[in-house]
Design brief:
The protein is mainly β. The chain folds into two domains: 177 residues, Jelly Rolls, CATH 2.60.120; 321 residues, YVTN repeat-like/Quinoprotein amine dehydrogenase (Methylamine Dehydrogenase, Chain H, 7 Propeller). Helix content is 2%, strand content 50%. The longest helix is centred in the middle third of the chain and has 8 residues. The radius of gyration is 25 Å and the shape is globular.
Amino acid sequence: MAKIGFIGEAYTSRSPNVAACRTVNLFPEVDNTGSSKSVVSLHGRPGLDLFSYLTIYPMRGQYSASNGVLYAVAGGKFYSVAGDGTETEKGTLQTSAGRVSFADNGSEVLVVDGTTGYIFNIGGDTFTAIADADFPTTPDMCTFIDGYFIVNKRGTGTFYISALYDGTAWDALDVATAEAHPDNILAVANDHRELWLFGDFSTEVWVNTGNASFPFERINGAVIEEGIAARWSVAQLDNSLFWLGKNKNGQGRVVRANGYQPQVISTRAIEEAIAGYSDISDAWACALIWHGHAWYVLSFPTADATWVYDATTGMWHEWSSRNAIGEFKRFIGNCYCFAYGKHLFGDYEDGDIYAFNSGTYTDNGEPIVRTRRTQHLSGDMKNLFMSRLQVDMEMGIGDSNYSSDTLIAYLADGSEIADGSILAGGEFAPGGSVNPQAMLRWSDDGGHIFGNEHWVTLGKQGEYKKRAVWNRLGRSRDRVYELNITDPVKVTLIDAHAEITGGRH
């Protein structure tokens, strides 16, 4: 049996005939030590456990403050959330929808919602709208540097700073303009005590010089000819800033800061996918470190897609979740923070807050479809006869805690799995989780249309010697395989081998 190209990152070309690879809810892991069976393996993404439930929705933002407490905004309410998930309402906003931005100075938490600014006094346990008439209208985003809160004013190139360590006091003279290019400030960020101002087509970097009249000045030469296409796509990871870029020549590439230069990290396939989205301005991103991986997670609400870049491996993959009506759409997270030693995501449909857990194989009880669609197998346009395929993966993963008739099975595209083994009276996954199954299907037309499902069992708990083997797979001049696993079990894909013989034209 010969090794085939089964394991890898997501890479679907503008034509699937060129490349049709998908990696959904599986992340690549690279081991170059020589001690592993395969250099690249695929592992199922962590599942989600319910951490807290806020009765108001949707989740608009959450923030881990310097006092160690998690604060969240859901609907029109501001909450504190304790380490056990208990929530306490602290105040009311004047808006009930749209993303919010947070910052804190150690004693105050600043919240801006695009219309108003609010201060939560930590010591006084009070939440109030900022009454100072000099506070800017339409503040979109905030940050904190060297004792100052900093906010932008929507639709302008100006930003404002607060009084030193006082978010309630603002001066009409404490304002500056990003003026290297005539574009608006869409986002602000603090990176290594530098103030990054992201515009439509350019980015400027300022620093606190201590000037008595206005403390911040632009760094000479720190003007980047790359703006931002989505104000909420900025995230800090791997000692750098990442964002969805835009300049006067176009938009839709993902970049990271390399000093004061943009380094493109998106592949042509990712950029082609983004170019097909009707709106990318509402994209949002977060960044997290997970078990040796550094992930930049970029979600597109309008397009219902989530892409993940791993700064550790340089590879991309996809995340998806099942929505309230049973469709698989973008990842369920609408906001993120790390608090109480947990990676926490707020739900875009309701007030749930979930915690990542590598030992959980559902999204709060909903199935996670793990999908790998391979590269093309072709033989110089000759028919290949495929008598046997064996996927090297972790076996004996059955879980007796789940019954075999409780989980609905879906494919990554949202369509239901429908074969003759589905139980009467329900839409249940064949085999369940006591003896979980993997489903293989394939395309012989360049990755356009995939055929019937072919199931194999992955072994009951402890059946480690079981193998995932498919026989009598027919012939093809050009084949793309797709493997789907829906059962709530641990998934690890290592390699694949096939018995393939060449044939006639």
